[in-house]
Amino acid sequence: MQTTVDSDACLSPPYRTMEPAQMSNPGVAAKLSVQELSAWHGEKQVLVRVSLDLPEHEISAVIGPSGCGKSTLIRCLNRMHELVPGATHRGSIQLDGEDIYASGVDPVLIRRRVGMVFQKPNPFPTMSIRDNVLAGLRLTGMRPGDLDAVVESALQQAALWSEVKDRLREPGTSLSGGQQQRLCIARALAVEPEVLLLDEPCSALDPIATTRIEDLLGTLRERYTIVIVTHNMQQAARVSQQTAFLLQGELVEFTETDALFTKPKDKRTEDYVTGKFG
Amino acid sequence: MARPASMRRSRRVGEALIERSMLGCALLSVVTTAAILAILVRQTGEFFAEVPISAFLFDTQWTPLFADKHFGIWPLLAGTFLTSAIAIAVALPFGLLAAIYLGEFATPRIRGVLKPTLELLAGVPTIVYGYFALVTLTPVLQKFMPELSGFNALAPGIVMGVMIIPMITSLGEDAISAVPGSVREGAYALGAGKLATVFRVVLPTALSGIAAAVVLAVSRAVGETMIVAIAAGQQPRLTLNPQVPVETMTAYIVQVGMGDTPTGTLEYRTIFVVGATLFAITFAANLLSQRWARRFRER
């Protein structure tokens, strides 16, 4: 069990705005380490000096009300944030100890190591199921020998293989919403990333499809480090090992999931997880 | 719900009146098309009562105004095809690349200046383009191509191409911009670079919209009249040589329409036969483009 004793000193609720919170789980190696990350959309600051360590081979959930900066946080983790016009940031993020924002680092290479799945399933509309899975390899100029093996392995990992193995040539958009989202997961996995970011991956899906994706995440954890943004607290509680609670761009609390939901340290976390606001 | 009956009634009458008048406006274009079609069909029918269809389809000469009359449509079709093909060859690469630049690479500020400026090109009267082709472009081209006749298919073709660039660019850019941002994000998130994302994901997704833009531009080129009437010469000639004078279907209609051909004669009816042929071609092209555009919107 990890402890969060170290971080408690930094949490002096409720007025902690100027004090950065360095929250980490000392027992586990950090795959991604975020330090003093602030981010802006134009003039509007959406993240305020967020620091947290995301442990390897675990699922970290990010929760918080709409507009709290959850999506911006994970979009900073694979440098998707900077694609939005007017988006800026300050602070550093380390992937295996290397600063992904250091000058000379190609964001394209970071995105190959840190894959992403979006809120709304977005298979490429002109491509077949098979081509969607292979899109990442083709678009980045990688040429693996056995394409069929890549397709099967990625679809197996995404728990979609048995449903689509006889219709790989059909358009990706012919699948149901839940299947499309798993196709997007397979597409992200096919390039063999180390980290998988999921931005509210189930918000457009029905409960059955949601359950399938949640089950899937449990098995993917063995091979990947996973960060999932969700507005659904039950989902965070079901799938994650640790949970970060963001409020108005500030990291209020980041700790073991059970602890965050059962004995939150911060009054604001308590109010949020007990449904007093949000 | 519980309004007085009189109020309900007057409102219903007013609504019906507005609805009817709007329906009338909508029907206007349908009725116009139907009327044009009816006249074309009638005159064409009368033409074919005198001239066998085989002469129209298989003769290689078009000389209805001469003593030795021939009614083969091919020279006019060739003229139209040649000038339109040149126009498309010019407009397609420039128009598409401009559309890709505006849609994917230009900053909003540059796009805000460039797009309206480009669309100004579409506002230049075609007679200006026509004289530009005849008195400016042809002499310039003759410096490089001594064989080039004073009237030719090349200069009006090129100028027509310039004229339809804004059409391809503007509609093409619309199609590219209509590709959802989520599609681009999906590609970027996989580690694709900008060029791979644009050319291998965004463009294929926008393809049917771009194709619709191109087909519309083609039908615009096929139907263009003034430029070719002025600068292409008026000699129906079955050739694909861009250096010699040719005549397009539209230019022929102008030539006969402005001449002293008496109504009701066979020469007069040739206008309608050529018009019907032109109508069939552009109508087919527009139908095609609408179908593509619809498929494009469904996505």
Number of strands of chain B: 0
The CATH class name of chain B reads Mainly Alpha
How would you characterize the largest beta sheet of chain B? none
Query: What's the CATH architecture of the domain at 19-122 and 195-273 in chain A?
Result: 3-Layer(aba) Sandwich
Most extensive chain interface and residues per partner = A-B, 28 and 21 residues
What would you say this structure looks like, in words?
- The complex is a heterodimer of chains A (278) and B (299).
- Chain A is built from eleven helices and eleven strands.
- Chain A is of the alpha/beta class.
- Chain A has a domain of 183 residues: P-loop containing nucleotide triphosphate hydrolases (Rossmann fold).
- The radius of gyration of chain A is 19 Å and the shape is globular.
- The N terminus of chain A is likely disordered.
- Chain B has eleven helices and no strands.
- Chain B has a single domain, classed as MetI-like fold (Orthogonal Bundle), CATH 1.10.3720.10.
- Chain B has 299 residues and is an all-alpha fold.
- The mean pLDDT of chain B is 89.
- At the A-B interface, helix 3, helix 4 and helix 7 of A face helix 7 and helix 8 of B.
Quick recap:
The complex is a heterodimer of chains A (278) and B (299). Chain A is α/β, with parallel strands linked by helices.
